Amino acid sequence: MQQSLSGKAKTRPLTPANVTVGRRRWSERGYALLFLGPSLALLAVFIFWPMLKTLYMSFFLTDKFGHITVFNGLGNYRSLLQDASYWASLGATLSYVAVVAVLTIVLGLILAVAAQQQLKGIGFFKTLFSSTMGISVSVAAIFWLFAFNPSVGVFAQLSQALHLPEINWLADPHFALLAIIITTVWMNLGFTFLILFGALQQVPRSLYDAADVAGVAKRTQFLKVTLPMISPTLFFVTTVTLIDAFKSFGLIDLMTAGGPSNATNLLVYRVYQDAFLNGSYAQASTESVVLTLLIAVVTLVQFKLFGKRVTY
Amino acid sequence: MAVKLETRLWWCWLSGLLLIVTLTFGLGTTAYGAGRTKIVFWHEMTGPAQAQLMTDAKAFNASQSKYEVVPEFEGSYNEAVQKILHTHGTSAAPALFQSMDVSTAQLYHANVATPVQKFIDADHYDVSQISSVARAFYSQNGKQISMPFNTSQPVLYYNASLLKRLGIKAPPVNPTYSDITRVAKAITAKSNGKVKGLTVEVYGWLFEQFMANGNTVMANQNNGRSGYPTTVDFTSTATQKAMAWIRENIQAKDFIDFGAGSQAESNEIAAFLAGKLGMFVQSSAYISQLLAGTKDQLGITYYPHADGTKANGVSIGGASLWIANSQPKNVQQGAWQFIKYVMTPQAQAAWQKATGYLALNQKSQHQAILKQLYAKQPVAKVPSEQLAAATANPANSGIFMEGLLQERTLTQTAMATIYNGGNITSALKTAETSMNQYLANNNRANQYTNH
Questions:
Q1: CB–CB of B260 and A256 under 8 A?
Q2: What b-and-e string marks burial along B340-363, b requiring 16 or more CB atoms within 10 Å of the CB?
Q3: Residue A186: is its pLDDT beyond 90?
Q4: Is the ipTM of this complex over 0.90?
């Protein structure tokens, strides 16, 4: 290698002008491939291939082993779109995602701002606010299941003591989704709080000092200084929360298993049920494709709408 | 710095490696050396049932020197079915596996097992000692395809002490819907609404039992016993009556709804043990937990049936044992020997005492271990009596149909709708239409046709 390079250099000196563009491109590509190859191969085997296979399967029917048997064209998509319970799942998912995202971020921000105040014992609250980060889904589920128990739970006893109407949180289709939302927000809050609190700490004090000198009201300071300064973090937190909410699974599986009356049968849970309980792999593939498109659209809209307002 | 960081890292690395090596080889080695045929046994038992199963495997291994049963826990029933199907014929596949009731038709059609009938015939094994309702559940065309194992039946539990305190007459041992309604209403009225009378979990298995006890088949083709089912009947008189009965109790405000799934079960048990719930229907497998959990006296009756009809008897729930057909002959033989071992009167009696599942060997009832249990807790006998009282027929021998998990999801959706005030017939009809669509799709996908 060294030999041939130096050999060439003798006959034609290496100057930028006479190194052919195509040649440089080839060697750059070669290097790129060398470095990216391993991860590309892994992605191809574990991500791209399953994705394509899922898309392919959605046009067929599968037997109990998951083997493709009969071509079904757009039949799976058609029956999915004609299924009233699928539309109910879709509606439930969208409202779940929207409410969870808004509540998590607003509450997380409020807690983060509160924790910034220089008060005695604030360290205790900081620990308390971020503590749900260390709690696993199963522990949270058990804790909340007990709280929601209609006969011995905390909420039932409270409403009995206060003579309020008793709510059957997990068995009433009108409240089950709300119960899951409360639990999810509670679970997510620790992470959101911690990230937003970190971002608030990064805002230079000098900006607030300058604003104080200029006589800017505290509320205006928050809107004109704080929010723009933490906007990249807010954007990140929103994206993560939205995608996470779409993928919610654990709490639903442990608390309601999709019921009552499909009220909490969110899209991802449906995919799981169809594939791993009912063995309808083609149906589950179809639902996965639709869900992927949906998440892509929502993320795109989010980037278009809010991406421009982010100040880096 | 006393110890260099690098050295410490090396130590970490080494001890980690050592741990992995010990775990793989330490746990991998078995109590017996070479010379024995290994029988890998996949099961899904947890808690006391798992412990008892280990005891059985150990005792079996000690009782002979040809085979060694190696039990391996495979997670939930649902996950296990998929694992069994997807590993079949590979080196990862087990020799013997436990699979849940609702997977029976699916596994039979997948042709992954040697019917135990083959071994029964070769051994002239007296199969009549095993409960006929349980056997019928896992039979097709007169052949035993797998051996019923952990088996339960739904029963009605009531708090006998509570009824006594409130001065309410206990329900009869084979109650009708109106018997239960009377007690439920009385409980709520006499406790001033502090105690709810009744709950019926939103559970497809219980829905199926209303049909079985009402002598009604759910799927056509004789509940799948004479061909691949193509339609189901969720709107039968039996189901309408059962749903109307529950609706009546809901309207009388003596009923409490805990929803569906494992959370519903733990919530209803918590309520029952706390004295906030008077009666509930549930699997007989909870009996040990209930006896241990409260000082109140426990009452048990048969599963309720509609007024003016005779109870047909309920079907069973639980799981059975299958012998994989991909294994060599001697391995299959070993699996069969183990099945015979766990079905002995002694093993079955010990199984019932330890787990709450029913002893399927009828001779178990004369074993000292069960006699002692019944002397101490006479109600513990009721589930076994209910099982023995029924004669197997297509309605109470289980539904031989693929997609029973889908059926349960759909009937549970219908039940939840009805519990929350929806129209009974239209809720059932919606579920029925979806299930028929599923069946059409599934039959097409698996290329099933009836001749």
A1: yes
A2: bbbbbbbbbbbbbbbbbbbbbbbe
A3: yes
A4: no
